[in-house]
Amino acid sequence: MLYLLISIHIVHRDTPRGVHFRRAGPCERTYFALDEVLACIVTCGGLCPGLNTVIREIVHSLDCMYDVNKVLGIDGGYRGFYSKNTIPLTPKVVNDIYKRGGTIVGTSRGGHNTKKIVDNIEDRGINQVYIIGGDGTQKGAAVIYEEICKRGLKVSISGIPKTIDNDILVHVVLSLAHMIKWKEAQHAINAAHVEAEITENGIGVVKKMSSSNFI
User: Fold this and answer.
1) What is the rounded CA–CA span in Å between residue 52 and residue 56?
2) How far is CA 179 from the centre of its chain?
3) What is the pLDDT of residues 43-100, one digit of tens each?
4) Can you state the angle between helices 135-151 and 114-124, rounded to 10 degrees?
């Protein structure tokens, strides 16, 4: 079993241990019986490249590797849980969505109401929740996990980092869209350079979007 080491503490008697997380990936044993799984996928926050690809791969992996065919898309971010807006996600539905921008299940900012979200998860019998989002979204996922634990529910919460800033507090190797931002930024910079170069006293101005890294 592989673990990702987050921090190291010199361990003395009665001192806390170092922090580590189990690396995601196929395991020898599965926690859930395959016929009892009802999964859901939600995207929160702003858009970034690759969201539909991630949704597609989750659905296909659940279906092909684990024979799980009950997957719901929560429409419109966190508030979609208690608005009860869902989209059935099957391999056929998601097969070609990687060709499209945006996210097939929609997204929104805010709308995090822990009690309402967990109430809905419990009422629907959902036991696998895949949350795709940036640093704020992942903090929300952690709060949902804590509430799940308080209630003693048999539900797994999986956070998938999505941010061009790569600013998730847990030291992920690379977040979704972090590399793509550089590639896409080059197109704008090159276009501005051409315009400025062929014009007398031309100046190209490119505004970056990333908040924590220079593009």
Assistant:
1) 6
2) 16
3) 998 888 789 999 999 999 999 988 999 999 999 999 999 987 899 999 999 999 988 9
4) 60
**What are the CA-CA distances from residue 94 to residues 25, 41, 60, 61, 82 (Å)?**
22, 12, 8, 12, 24
Number of domains in the chain: 2
This prediction has a pTM of: 0.76
Tokens of 189: 């910079």
The domain that holds 60 is classified in CATH as: 3.40.50.450
Question: Are 109 and 185 part of one and the same domain?
Answer: no
Strand partners, 129: 40, 157
Q: Provide CB contacts within 8 A for 32, sequence distance 6+.
A: 127, 128, 154, 156
Strand partners for 86: 74
- Residue found under tokens 């970056």: 208
> In the structure, what pLDDT confidence band is assigned to residue 182 with cuts at 50, 70 and 90?
low
Active site residues: 165
Q: Is 55 in contact with 72 (CB distance < 8 Å)?
A: no
Tell me, yes or no, whether 145 and 185 share the same domain.
Answer: no
Its domain, for residue 86, covers 31-161
Whether 169 maps to a domain, the answer reads no
